[in-house]
Design the sequence.
């Protein structure tokens, strides 16, 4: 065989063809395997056109499962980015329209060629292994084996180098439409791809909240792997033009930067659900997941009216924002979707989630929870496999109806249907914490954190589960993780202070009291903080403001009760707890285990409150 250059130099760059490395001024430049192989092929034919057909034969042979156009465009773009090159004004790689590419920069004369070294002994080796070992020992490129594809060598090499994937993240798809009004559609595609893949056995899928941290953030793959603890990532893009949608996706091994799979799909917008299913199956096949008959049924595409699906995606986009205005907008979109397709089960499930979200701070549970229950039940009548609908119905039963058995049935069903759902596990974990079952609760929270490690909501609720379990150091640890993600989160600041107070720490050892956001829930928490820190006048002033506020808008009676308990005003605390029972406050189930109410536990009136909630029946 002819000699092949190992070190190829041009400008300030050097390519080590054997090591598969690009260096600039002696420093390694991050460039993945396929783009390096492409660059080497161009360098070996510097000054000449390398046709698209030659590149396809060498790097993407016919039996390789990949979208060649997308793969080539991606690889060329990455080569240019690594070299600081431009397609419009190229210094290194020139596009020859309709034909291929040409490396146009001069190579430096010290580019070295090295003769093949003697091959090692082949005794005891498989015949194919002898050929591969000989190529490697002779200093030839992996690209040579890929070009020849002798006896399927390239496929064999790829199968041997890929490691099993156990944890996978779907990074936010990129909106190529250059139209911000399409962000909801692209985010919806990301969400539903995550959901579809999460239903497949054998692989943990990182939840959407953690994945969305990397939207429009050009982070190194090594950093993403470290933060999410993943083996591989799916990345890609969505281009929508009129009623046509093109989705490009690729699977990348986060451990090696190796591209394992890539494909593009184009469909009518009305076929989006079927398209997501097709992509999910292709990825699952590549990461060696066997889809069982039960799993295949779970991911079977559902058929909905395209306009209804569009409204649903917009509703989900708003709901995911989490603020009051966005939640109210989501209700309008979900309602619109149902008007367009009365059998659109996900929209009923979305409605249930939105109504429950409003009970946190904004609307009385007596008004929202019945609506949430009706919506969840309607979703389940249409599709009994919707995990999110079971989770919402379970939340209604334990936060509002105080039906512990019914709540646990729904929440366990939600987890069983979607084991990769951090939301389902958080709901179940909170329920178990309030039931006084800390070991089971914390196990669910640990699973939720593994699924969604960058979720503020997961860390806030996990911290609360530890707090109810009297594990204050672990609670503080979780709340600090939340603050690392959202430094101005008032709830986390006040929660940390309460945990320090529960530890009986000296005030000087506790963190500074952070300003409140002004919401009723945070004002109530601040009243408690002031009370336990000995700042009684400020606590009483805050409570008086809350009581005044409660005359014309919803305020959680339970939180006011805990502040009065911290002040030692037992009668006022019990009076507000009774109001919490009357108003069906969603916090009332906390009363069984909440450390803030320990001073009341010996009072028969408190025991009566517990009985009315449903404890001790």
Sequence:
């Amino acid at each position: 065989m002819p000699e092949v250059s190992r070190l190829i130099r041009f400008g300030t760059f050097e390519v080590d063809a054997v090591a598969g490395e690009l260096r600039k001024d002696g420093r390694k430049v991050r460039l993945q395997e396929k783009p390096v192989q492409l660059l080497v092929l161009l360098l070996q034919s510097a000054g000449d056109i390398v046709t698209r057909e030659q590149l396809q034969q060498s790097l993407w042979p016919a039996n390789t499962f990949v979208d060649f156009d997308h793969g080539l465009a991606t690889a060329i773009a990455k080569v240019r980015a690594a070299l600081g090159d431009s397609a419009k004004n190229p210094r290194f790689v020139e596009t020859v329209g309709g034909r291929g590419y040409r490396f146009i920069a001069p190579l430096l004369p010290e580019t070295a060629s090295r003769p093949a070294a003697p091959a090692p002994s082949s005794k005891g080796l498989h015949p194919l292994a002898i050929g591969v070992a000989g190529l490697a020992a002779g200093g030839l490129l992996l690209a040579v084996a890929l070009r020849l594809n002798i006896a399927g060598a390239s496929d064999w090499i790829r199968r041997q180098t890929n490691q099993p994937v156990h944890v996978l993240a779907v990074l936010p798809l990129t909106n190529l439409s250059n139209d911000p009004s399409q962000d909801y559609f692209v985010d919806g595609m990301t969400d539903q791809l995550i959901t579809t893949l999460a239903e497949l056995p054998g692989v943990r899928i990182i939840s959407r909240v953690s994945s969305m941290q990397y939207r429009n953030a050009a982070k190194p793959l090594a950093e993403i792997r470290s933060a999410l603890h993943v083996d591989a990532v799916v990345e890609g893009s969505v281009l929508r033009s009129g009623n046509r949608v093109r989705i490009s996706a690729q699977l990348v091994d986060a451990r090696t930067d190796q591209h394992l799979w890539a494909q593009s799909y184009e469909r009518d917008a009305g076929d989006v659900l079927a398209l997501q299913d097709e992509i999910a199956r292709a990825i699952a096949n590549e990461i060696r997941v066997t889809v069982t008959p039960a799993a295949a049924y779970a991911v079977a595409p559902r058929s909905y009216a395209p306009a209804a699906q569009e409204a649903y995606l917009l509703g989900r986009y708003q709901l995911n924002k989490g603020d009051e205005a966005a939640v109210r907008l989501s209700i309008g979109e979900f309602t619109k979707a149902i008007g367009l397709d009365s059998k659109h089960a996900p929209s009923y499930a979305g409605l249930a989630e939105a109504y429950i979200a409003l009970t946190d701070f904004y609307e009385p549970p007596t008004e929202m929870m019945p609506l949430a229950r009706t919506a969840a039940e309607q979703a389940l009548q249409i599709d009994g496999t919707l995990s999110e609908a079971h989770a919402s119905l379970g939340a209604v039963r334990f936060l509002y109806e105080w039906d512990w058995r019914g709540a646990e049935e729904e929440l366990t069903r939600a987890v069983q249907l979607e084991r990769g759902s951090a939301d389902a596990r958080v709901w179940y974990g909170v329920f178990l914490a309030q039931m006084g079952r800390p070991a089971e609760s914390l196990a669910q929270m640990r699973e939720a954190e593994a699924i969604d490690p960058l979720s503020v909501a997961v860390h806030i609720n996990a911290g609360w589960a530890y707090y109810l379990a009297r594990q204050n150091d672990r609670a503080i640890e979780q709340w600090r993780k939340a603050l690392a993600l959202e430094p101005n989160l008032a709830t986390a600041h006040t929660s940390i202070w309460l945990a320090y107070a529960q530890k009986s720490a000296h005030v000087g050892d506790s963190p500074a009291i952070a300003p409140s956001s002004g919401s009723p829930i945070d004002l109530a928490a601040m009243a408690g903080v002031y009370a336990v820190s000995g700042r009684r006048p400020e606590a009483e002033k805050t409570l008086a403001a809350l009581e005044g506020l409660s005359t014309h808008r919803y305020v959680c009676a339970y939180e006011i009760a805990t502040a009065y308990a911290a002040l030692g005003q037992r009668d006022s605390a019990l009076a507000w707890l009774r109001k919490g029972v009357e108003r069906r406050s969603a916090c009332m189930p906390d009363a069984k285990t909440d450390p803030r109410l320990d001073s009341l536990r010996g009072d028969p009136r408190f025991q009566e409150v517990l009985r009315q909630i449903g404890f001790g029946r």
The mean pLDDT is 79.
